[in-house]
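Recap quiz, item 2
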Amino acid sequence: MIRLLLAEDHHLVRGAFAALLGTEPGIEVVAETGRGDEAVRLAVELRPDVAMLDIDMPGLDGLAAAERIAETVPSCRVVIVTGYGRPGYLRRAMAAGVRGFVGKDNPAATLAQVIRQIHGGGRYIDPELAADALSMRECPLTPRELDTLRAAASGAPVSRIARELRLSEGTVRNYLSSAVTKLAVENRHTAVRRARDMGWL
Amino acid sequence: MIRLLLAEDHHLVRGAFAALLGTEPGIEVVAETGRGDEAVRLAVELRPDVAMLDIDMPGLDGLAAAERIAETVPSCRVVIVTGYGRPGYLRRAMAAGVRGFVGKDNPAATLAQVIRQIHGGGRYIDPELAADALSMRECPLTPRELDTLRAAASGAPVSRIARELRLSEGTVRNYLSSAVTKLAVENRHTAVRRARDMGWL
DNA sequence: GCCGAGCCGTGACATTTGTCAGGGTCCGGC
DNA sequence: GCCGGACCCTGACAAATGTCACGGCTCGGC
């Protein structure tokens, strides 16, 4: 019997996943939660065989939760299930030692299969998303550029970003301009969106 | 037996919903799809008792699909299920004659209850979302302001927006400025986000 | 040691964006 | 009829943003 931990922020979807997996022989959902930090706590406490994590969660996002679980409960295999096919996410997930990565566009039957495969020691990467990630170059932005982009993401004016980061306004403008050039977009706002779409932000 | 049409763009989630509702006595899923236009076609063809629509779908969004179904298959009651609690969406849904509106943050048991209630001639509005919508004023933006905001949403510079809308740059800046003031935000980019969050865009 | 590459930081300058005052049109109330 | 209000549109001016040339720092290769 595979003991499964289920983490997904939308209550309704979580319940539906539980119903779906409940019909599968050999799989038992031992706990479910809508928060990333809760997921880590439950993994430590219950030592499930497999943890299935959504990325978009309050408290701690699914990728960060995966990292923590890999550190503290190495026996627990992690599969990420996400609606956003962002190349950077897949990269981060792989770095975190995740064993499975599945997009929400797959047929329902895939899910149980993947869980069994992961539990058996295998790996599963959504072929669609893998192709995207491989065809994609690494993030070309420097740490400082990412900092400024993150700070700019809320729509704050340069003056505020500069204060937050303790930089001169000129420097902030410079980083943003550089990011804009590297991402080949027109202005920082589209740069923010592009970076977010890539999963870099 | 309640004959149900299920429309939700994420295949995996759709399958999970089908599994969840499949365990409910008295409910039969007669068709499922991931596209809004398909949902309308299937409703016309199969005349289900209830259609459960997600908002975020390719082809035709759930709200537009609800409008079409209300026109062409009045016997079919519609319930909207959505992850985004945008006040404007609820308003549009009500205007379209939707009988139920449920956020994805509800417990799984709610769903079947709501479907039964709708089918019995009742209505159900997510109390959480209803409160948001009622506490919210109507969209204060004029048609032209909405046009410019929509055009600005992609991050295009004023010059391009002006060309698209056949306006002088000054006029475009003026509309955007007006929208920014009305929404009480700092610049057009946050204005775009705010308007989108409200479901006005 | 020293050279080059890459990152961090800055100010001055050009361009874009935001703000303001104001003119034109349409429509409903009196 | 005409008044007030709401909307559409514009150009001129001020403020924010984007661009550029430049200097300092660290680190790895030679």
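Chain B has a mean pLDDT of 91.
Chain B has ten helices and six strands.
End of item.
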